[in-house]
Amino acid sequence: MAVLALALLIPLTAGVFDLSVGNMLAFSLVIVSWFQANTGLNGFVSSVLAVLACGAVGFVSGLVVVRFRVDSFIATLGMSQILAAGTLYISSNKQIVGVLSPTFLEYGRKEILGIPVVVYYLVALALVIWYVLAFTPLGRHLFATGANAEAARLSGVRTDRLVWGSLVGSAVIAGIAGVIYGAKIGSFSNSFGPPLLFPAFAAVFFGSTQFKSRPNVWGTLVAVYTLAFGVKGLQLAFASGVYWITPLFNGVALVLAVALAARSGAVARRRRSLTGPSGAGAEPVPSNVRSNGALPGLASVEADAGALRT
């Protein structure tokens, strides 16, 4: 789920939603399983093909959002159903077990210094995304696009390309999540992927309220493990009949996270309105994000022209 949350993080910084990441994970895993079962390709080649296929789907989602001006919520929701159909077709609506090679599974199940190797994958991916968002012009432009797309565009930022690219990046990372998930679990089922969407969203929103008042990598990871511990604690508190705990907890957590994010955005806007302009003739850029998807209060970047052009 943590890798899937990082996939969601990228388009949210640009002010758009990607509701297809759960089905993208399942789509990636079914492609890896099908190639290893029917073509004899090794795990590495199968994984690369799966990630590339997910990237192509993300490209189509970006095309629909940017060129045809379809709301990202609707576009990616529709794409998630198309991915679900493709996954069902490839798998023939059956579980796929015993087809992943032992070498492929080793990369998901071995431990290094007593720590599961998947944790190292997560940390490496988080470090890359954190560096890009925090220390590169691309990251500043993504946050500026999410804060106020029109102001960013007038400052010279290619907002359409950034939105398009964020959806491709989200799809690629979700595809990587599917590969990692398959190497860890060792099988495919149609139940994999979609149930992880809501807790991943909750983690991103919770993380945005705890650090920097905007989507961020480390807040997201902290929220992922906080939610996981919460679910586990509730399961341990009930001796039996806990099948309803996980969806209930994830649903409540998502609602609370969005409410806290909206409240923090309102507080930030009120504070800026009280302090007034920061310089002669300057006006603060509103912190609400693009009207085509994200919620208020998640991006608080000041989109001044000087910072964007550096």
How does this structure look, described?
The protein is mainly alpha-helical and 310 residues long. The chain has a single domain, classed as ABC transporter involved in vitamin B12 uptake, BtuC (Orthogonal Bundle). It has 13 helices and four strands. It has helices at residues 2-13, 21-38, 43-66, 72-91, 102-109, 117-135, 137-147, 149-154, 159-185, 197-210, 217-237, 245-275, 305-308; strands at 96-97, 111-112, 115-116, 187-188. The strands form two sheets. It has a two-stranded antiparallel sheet with strand order 1-4. It has a two-stranded antiparallel sheet with strand order 2-3. Strand 2 and strand 3 (115-116) form a beta hairpin. It starts with a helix and ends with a helix. The relative contact order is 0.18. Mean pLDDT is 85; it is low at 278-310.
Please specify the SSE layout and strand pairing.
Elements: H1 2-13, H2 21-38, H3 43-66, H4 72-91, E1 96-97, H5 102-109, E2 111-112, E3 115-116, H6 117-135, H7 137-147, H8 149-154, H9 159-185, E4 187-188, H10 197-210, H11 217-237, H12 245-275, H13 305-308
Antiparallel strand pairs: 1-4, 2-3
Helix pairs in contact: 1-6, 1-9, 1-10, 1-11, 2-3, 2-4, 2-9, 3-4, 3-9, 5-9, 6-7, 7-9, 10-11, 10-12, 11-12
